[in-house]
Amino acid sequence: MRRPILFLGILAVLFPFLKTASAQTATLREVHTEGLKTLTEPQVIALAGLTLGSQVGRKELQDAADNLVRSGLFANVNYKFDTHNEDVKLTFTLAENSLLTVSYDNFPWYADSELDEAIRKELPFYNSRLPEAGEVVERAAAALKAFVSSRDAHVEVTHQVVVSPLSEGSAQQFSVEGPIARIASVEFSDPSLAQNLAVRTHLSEVVGHTYSRMTVDIFLSEQIRPIYLQQGLLRAKIGPAEVRLPNNPNQKLTEQIPVFVPCTPGHIYRWEGVEWKGNSALSTFTLAGAMRLSTGDIANGLAIEGGFDRVREEYGHLGFLEVKLTPTPKYNDTAHTISYEVPVVDGVQYHYGSMTISGMSLAGERMIREAWPQKAGDIFDKTLFEDFLARLESKRATIFKDLPIHYDTVGHFLQTDPAKATVEVLLDFK
């Protein structure tokens, strides 16, 4: 998160009450804001700790601005004030921070709506989104702890920013440390999943383990989503997972959590093709061949991802190590087809420059250089580089022959020089 910028703008007319030591405050009559997008002026006033009609001096104004900075809600906090007849008019110019969706990782005994309401009682402006850090996040954690502690006093609530497995972007995730709850079962609304051998095989990765929404989401992303993608069910809706417990406030918190996952497969999509834009190093024909999909094929989502990986490999084979592909899917929900528009920026075509080796004996280094398949000035072939790494890791005899060599890992890096269009290979043996 960017560090907020705090600026005190003092108008030409300063507090007249500062002229005497006995009168150092004035009445706060007006507070205004500029730059707000989601919050309101009354909410900012409350966050700043100000009260209209109260007596304020320079310290109180500075403290109010500091409160806004510490809240974590603002990237920039600027303010200015004016006085008239010993009344103060204060104006904040603010830039709000982007907010993250809130996720409750392991609160299976409570509905999200209950947890949201617990935070909202502490933070009236709360709308299921919070900043990365700051006092409002700490206040939200304290509110959750107080709420959960009403049923079990031996808990702590922590928070961290995590990447969401089932959606793009990050989330502010709250977790409770206390009673250990385990996943007793996982059921799906789609009966085909219950009959799927792969699903049954992988269920042991979650069933019997400590309950965590993140754990369940990772399982859905890594094991369930690919099943749908392979069948061309590209818009299948998976989750969010639900916990279905008896609604009895007097019942002891259960330690066995049944999980239910609503899944809607949707329609099977078929492949319509790719519109390539900006490609010059490789022809459209070559790029289409690398995708290995024909019009009318079932749009296997994993095969599509593999196709774009092969396109990148084709560019790497020709020395374009920094090619940028930006695939944008276009769904035809009437015909149930999918096509892509893919702008391509080829970038610099690199040539092999040199190799730097560390952690290897002189004899071993000599043999590495002799086995290296490219000479200075050649168009750098990333495929040859990756094949060479594979030999160093699992087929050492093809390089070192009978030379006794001992190393566990091979660190590797490609140092590019765009100005010279060269690449240096760095190998570190440990």
Strand order of the largest sheet: 1-4-5-2-3
Work out the number of β strands: 21
Report the sheet with the most strands, covering strand number, pairing sense and barrel closure: 5 strands, mixed
Could you state the CATH homologous superfamily of the largest domain? membrane protein fhac
What is the general shape? Answer: extended
Structural class: alpha/beta
**Low-confidence stretches at least 5 residues in length (pLDDT < 50)?**
7-22
Using the 3D structure, state the CATH architecture of the largest domain. Roll
- The total domain count is 5
Structure description:
The chain is α/β, with parallel strands linked by helices and 430 residues long. The protein is 30% helix and 30% strand. The protein folds into five domains: 5-96, Roll (Ubiquitin-like (UB roll)), CATH 3.10.20.310; 98-179, Roll (Ubiquitin-like (UB roll)), CATH 3.10.20.310; 185-266, Ubiquitin-like (UB roll); 270-345, membrane protein fhac (Ubiquitin-like (UB roll), Roll); 352-429, Ubiquitin-like (UB roll) (Roll). A five-stranded mixed sheet has the order 1-4-5-2-3. Strands 7-6-9-8 form a four-stranded mixed sheet, covered by helices on one side. Strands 15, 16, 17 and 18 form a four-stranded mixed sheet that branches. The radius of gyration is 30 Å and the shape is extended. Mean pLDDT is 90; it is low at 7-22.
